[in-house]
Design brief:
Number of helices: 11
Distance between the termini: 17 Å
Largest sheet: 7 strands, mixed
Helix content: 25-40%
Order of helices and strands: EEEHEEEHEHEHHEHEHEHEHEEHEHE
Bound molecules: nicotinamide-adenine-dinucleotide, zinc ion
Length: 352
């Protein structure tokens, strides 16, 4: 089969590989739609997970089941399915302990284009099919389903980690697709004001649609000063970080109220330490919590998040700014993600 792969750090290309083998608990999927992710860019061009040779990229997609293992109960050949980017081993102790994304070791629930070939292939393998697949509802298009693999569950996990409550004033740092879904999630959780940090007009427009009320540019000076000005010196109740680097934690702590939470879903690619400003962290006693997490996967979560689209409470279509038709365009879509033209939020490739 054909796949689009990382050949080595900094190098991509099309390769031929054997079709993956289906274990007794697993499924083999033929993709219907695929989407590249900022994480694919980090993987190839920043060497984020270290060297990989001829590893097929991609972890966002949906498809049709072409093979199932003998133990799989709820899925059969021909079913149209959604798949999350994170595919835990649901029998692991970590999953039983409530952290499926760390099944088998820290971050090890992330398997696609990390420990095994990803989804940018004619066929891809899903472990623990009953736990990691969900039936694709007729009312959700394959391109929308791609956003349920990673963008929706990750942005919403930021909201969960920040523990957004009714009436909270929330700051979202970074409004790429993940941050935009954090805005949407905070809005659904009943936030009052949602302050968004971002500069690109296409993202600001989308953020307004998802419920952002105020906008801040990190290019106009320190974020904390701008937030404190907008909130009459009070600061915000909750913060979700979905962009920037290690430097975002300092302004975040400075404009977070005591008792507030930071939910970080951002990948920190550089630096040895995250700086926490001592005084503004209440000299160690400010009850300002920092929670950082990889999103959980799983069928239940996929079904629940899909139900928000089904009833019309969440619309992922504004994320899909660039559409391609045909498997061969996976490469163009990934290059677009790498080059990030100003009018891009997410590219998607439709195969059927
Ligand atoms: P993205 O690059 O499209 O968006 C990030 C945005 O942050 C960009 O628009 C960028 O301009 C902006 N930004 C850069 N510096 C900033 C700063 N100092 N302050 C505020 N904004 C700044 O990426 P994305 O696809 O939205 O993903 C966001 C992050 O989430 C990435 O690091 C990605 O790797 C990570 N991610 C994490 C998970 C998880 O499970 N935790 C899953 C998927 C992606
Ligand atoms: Zn992703």
């Amino acid at each position: 089969m054909k796949g689009f792969a990382m050949l080595e750090i900094g190098k991509t290309g099309w390769i031929e590989k054997e079709k993956p083998e289906c274990g007794v608990n697993d499924a083999i999927i033929k993709p219907l739609a695929l989407s590249p992710c900022t994480s694919d860019v980090h993987t190839v061009w920043e060497g984020a997970i270290g060297e990989r040779h001829n590893m097929i990229l991609g972890h966002e997609g949906c498809g049709v089941v072409v093979e199932v293992g003998s133990n799989v109960k709820d899925f059969k050949v021909g079913d149209r399915v959604m798949v999350a980017a994170i595919t835990p081993d649901w029998n692991s102790l970590e999953a039983q302990g409530g952290y499926p994304m760390h099944s088998g070791g820290m971050l090890a629930g992330w398997k696609f284009s990390n420990f095994k070939d990803g989804v940018f292939a004619e066929y891809f393998h899903v472990n623990d099919a009953d736990g990691n697949l969900a039936h694709l509802p007729d009312t959700i298009s394959p391109e929308e389903a791609c956003m349920l693999s990673d963008m929706v569950p990750t942005g919403f996990h930021g909201v969960e980690l920040a523990d957004v409550q009714f009436g909270d004033t929330v700051l979202v740092i970074g409004i790429g697709p993940v941050g935009l879904m954090a805005v949407a999630g905070a809005n659904l959780r009943g936030a009052s004001r949602i302050l968004a940090v971002g500069t690109r007009p296409v993202c600001i427009e989308a953020a307004k649609g998802y419920g952002a009320t105020d906008f801040i540019s990190y290019k106009d000076g320190p974020i904390d000063e701008q937030v404190l000005k907008l909130t009459n010196g009070k600061g915000v109740d909750k913060i979700i970080i979905a962009g920037g680097g290690v430097e975002t934690f300092e302004p975040a702590i400075k404009c977070l109220k005591p008792g507030g939470n930071i939910g970080n879903v951002n990948y920190l690619g550089e630096g040895v330490y995250v700086n926490i400003p001592r005084e503004e962290w209440g000299v160690g006693m400010g009850h300002k919590q920092i929670n950082g997490g990889l999103m959980p996967g799983g069928r239940l979560r996929l079904q629940k998040l899909a139900s928000l689209i089904e009833v019309g409470k969440l619309d992922v279509k504004p994320l899909l700014t660039h559409k391609f038709k045909g498997f061969e365009h996976v490469e163009d879509a990934l290059m677009l993600m790498k080059d990030k033209p100003r009018d891009l939020i997410k590219p998607v490739v439709i195969l059927e």
